[in-house]
Recover the amino acids of this structure.
């Protein structure tokens, strides 16, 4: 059904919630347009004079775009570099350039604090708006013409506003069966329930979605057929799955057929890491050019899986982007890309909450981006990607060191079509210490190395536990999690990522999973954590008895 | 009813909305407490490494706390100073000190970007939390013991969260008959309606409030008796009125009697400007000490009217504070002070919207405040106050130059008990030009010089218009407003501040008012604007025919 040529978005205003339709333009904001008249003397707003902003200028030393290498280096090199940085808090290794934002600019149009720190409409400041438009246009290439950019304070805010703009109480939202708990927490209080759709290694299953929607019975389900989908297509949280282009197109076409709005929450888009290759088979490839360049940007972007926007010829996708993973979580800055009707309603909602995102943050981030330039920012993102690739590789290497990993193709279930790594104890050579344990060839857990994102999603084979009784999964997961925590290691407990975990009275929490993040921490700590995990899980499975 | 000794807050949880009660703790956030364990190896969260934050440090040149004089100087002096600053965009006059926030601090506990720019709970960062606690404790001295501080992204966000935390659809909120339009815009979409209470020169009238609540008939009113009040007690927006201590106590006691929660929106608290004295009677007093000091802070604070918190022995006040008027609107940073039960629910709501306020903003603002110290910040606030006093005085001087102002005591209505300035045309001496107009002694407008805030609330005597027919107020107000705008001057149109302006199908918009802000702009522009206003309004009233 997808078409190549760009079209105008279709009228989708029937998706707006009652709440959203009842929002009026803030009348004070309506006056704002007169401010633009040259020479107007405005005594209408309640704006303080910039003379009273206590900051004459803000400066920063900003990392250069090519701060991180593009080719995964030998672990040892990478480690020593990171160790220095973390261990000694010695930041002198960082190569930086200075930026400054004055209160009063010498060139009127330059980024300045007199404007950035003033009241503004609930949209991005001008330079940021321009940057985001260029970025979205070149990176995501939406298939409809009249797409609109609107800033928010990050994807949690973005999703929360999307829910209130699109959903009425009593409705349901389609989502992956394992999903981001905060996304569910934004819905439940409004009596909007998650409607889980089955997953495989590519994320949400299109046949499950089609079946669910075609066979929807509002009476037995006690809710109308869902018209909104929440989806994390890249480096999915928590499963780490990443959707193929073909799957995305299938999902999109089903959403057209059943008139569903897709909210694409995509914080890990630039953490597309490639396939994990075991340590022994890994070798450094040719180092790509390290300097920012338009050609390199284009070539790199062509390697990334396209956004839903890229074949959204109707304008039914609301894409959520954020600077949390690419600049810093404290940015509290992100943006919607969507049709202009939705954007206008989302803006109205913004006016009565945070209004615009923080001016200090907007000014500094915009100055960094425009200083780097578009190609510099793409170069920065490529460096980050390589860093996370090294982190993933090192983390899985640690698992491979600690356990016997057996690679098997999965023929069904969540990992259908993937190579699954099944972990069992390995015979540990006695080193003069008393420690030794036998290999019972019992799979204690399994996982698929993620090709994107920050997480390894570990399935615990609790049915292999010596004292396992069906129905015990919940208890055993919690027991193992607590044992680990007591031994000084925290993983993400699987139950909290179940789409139904927060639905009232829900009792179908699946169980026996951990979400493990390799995004933070020192490499030595990964090693330590996995060693502790090895000891605790073997003890738990009574492998050493 | 008020008592002096401090008590614990009483149980007011029956005020929580259904929405608020349905909120659960974000399960991901629940894990956060384990992070505090020394030496814990956490792979649970999805936190990026601070090594990937592209900022090595942020610096700023910050105005010194004593930047603004404490004694109103001669207008000419003040003007020339301001002219230079604004006119030439020459900021070199600003006396500044440098602050720096490193990513990795040399002393672990110092403010640093590695922490400030990381994910955090929806509360203030540690240094800011400490500062706000001290500030609230010393400045507002709440009458109940277990008051709690919670950050938000400014008072619009604060009020919006208070509405959703306290009100169910179909309810009403008590407010001043003229009120802040954005506050109403946050309620209307949820089917929560403003319930206007009459005002006089001291703001909301206690007898009107008592009558309204005692005679409340849920059937004829089609809503239950309101249990929430929205009030701007200092420099009220738009009326400029400021509530006395006695009135506040009356209002508070009525709220105790009828079990009403008071949401005190107080952005103008530090703009308490004193009584306007006409130019000829004004003379510079003794200059107070310009340096920050604990004694001066105490002495100054004792001159300010107390917050509702100060006699809130039950914990039924939710106070909203903001840095928008004291640092900069772009801060998008403010805080609630309220009982711990409300604070916990407000925090839950914050988790699913902006999460924490922007880390760039929190870091810079906190660094400024701690660099200045508490007494320095109080000194800064005192300087701001004097600046706004000069602005108010100059602005009203302009009106006195342009019109004949006749001072009369008001015996009834909104300004009961105040000296009202009635403005009519004055005989203009012919200066060789052709311009001249007669004094018809007709009051075109009247106002009370505000003792706090940023606004002059101007009542238009449209019934004095030659072609006035009762019921024409709306049309005439808009006509005059548009004429002014076409001549290059923007005032705030009165109709938009009516508490009912946004209620659907409302037809009781009062009319014939302008809200004029003296908070921004150059003094020369005030002069120009009032000259244009003089010409336009005389023409409008056909004074020069």
């Amino acid at each position: 059904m997808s078409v190549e040529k760009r079209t105008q978005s279709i009228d989708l205003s029937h998706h707006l919630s009652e709440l959203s339709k009842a929002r009026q333009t803030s009348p004070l904001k309506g006056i704002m347009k007169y401010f633009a008249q040259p020479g107007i003397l405005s005594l209408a707003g309640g704006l303080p004079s910039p003379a009273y902003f206590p900051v004459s200028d803000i400066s920063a030393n900003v990392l250069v775009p090519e701060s991180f290498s593009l080719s995964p280096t030998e672990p040892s090199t990478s480690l020593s570099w990171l160790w220095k940085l973390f261990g000694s808090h010695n930041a002198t290794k960082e190569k930086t350039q200075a930026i400054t934002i004055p209160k009063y600019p010498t060139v009127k149009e330059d980024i300045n604090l007199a404007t950035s720190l003033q009241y503004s409409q609930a949209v991005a400041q001008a330079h940021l708006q321009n940057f985001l438009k260029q970025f979205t246009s070149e990176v995501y290439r939406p298939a409809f013409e009249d797409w609109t950019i609107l800033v928010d304070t990050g994807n949690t805010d973005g999703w929360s506003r999307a829910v209130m703009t699109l959903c009425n109480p009593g409705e349901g939202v389609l989502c992956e069966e394992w999903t981001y708990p905060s996304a569910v927490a934004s819905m439940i209080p409004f009596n909007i329930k998650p409607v889980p759709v089955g997953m495989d290694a590519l994320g949400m299953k299109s046949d499950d979605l089609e079946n669910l929607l075609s066979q929807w019975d509002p009476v037995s389900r006690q809710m109308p057929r869902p018209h909104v989908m929440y989806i994390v297509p890249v480096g999915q949280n928590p499963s780490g799955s990443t959707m193929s282009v073909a799957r995305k197109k299938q999902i999109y076409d089903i959403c057209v057929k059943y008139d569903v709005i897709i909210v694409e929450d995509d914080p890990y888009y630039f953490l597309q890491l490639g396939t994990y290759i075991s340590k022994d088979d890994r070798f450094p490839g040719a180092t790509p050019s390290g300097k920012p360049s338009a050609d390199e940007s284009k070539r790199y972007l062509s390697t990334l899986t396209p956004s839903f926007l890229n074949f959204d010829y109707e304008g039914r996708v609301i894409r959520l982007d954020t600077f949390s993973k690419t600049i810093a979580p404290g940015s509290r800055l992100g943006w919607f890309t969507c049709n202009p009707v939705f954007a206008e309603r989302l803006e109205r909602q913004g006016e009565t909450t945070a209004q615009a995102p923080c001016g200090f943050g907007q000014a500094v981030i915009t100055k960094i981006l425009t200083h780097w330039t578009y190609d510099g920012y793409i170069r920065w993102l490529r460096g980050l990607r390589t860093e996370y690739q090294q982190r993933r590789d090192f983390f899985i290497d640690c698992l491979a060191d600690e356990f016997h990993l057996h690679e098997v193709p999965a023929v069904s279930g969540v990992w259908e079509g993937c190579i699954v790594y099944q972990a069992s104890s390995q015979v540990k050579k006695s080193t003069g210490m008393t420690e030794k344990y036998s290999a019972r060839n019992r799979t204690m857990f399994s996982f698929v190395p993620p090709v994107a994102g920050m997480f390894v999603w570990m399935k615990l084979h609790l049915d292999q536990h010596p004292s396992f009784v069906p129905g015990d999964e919940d208890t055993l997961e919690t027991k193992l999690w607590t044992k680990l925590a007591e031994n000084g290691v925290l993983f993400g407990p699987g139950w909290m990522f179940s789409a139904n975990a927060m639905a009232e009275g829900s009792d179908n929490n699946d169980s026996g999973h951990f979400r493990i993040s390799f995004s933070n921490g020192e490499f030595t700590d990964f090693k330590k954590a996995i060693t502790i995990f090895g000891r605790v899980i073997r003890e738990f499975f009574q492998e050493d008895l």
The longest helix of chain B spans residues 359-402. Chain B touches chain A through 122 residues (CB under 8 Å). Confidence is low (pLDDT under 50) at residues 74-92, 504-509 of chain B.
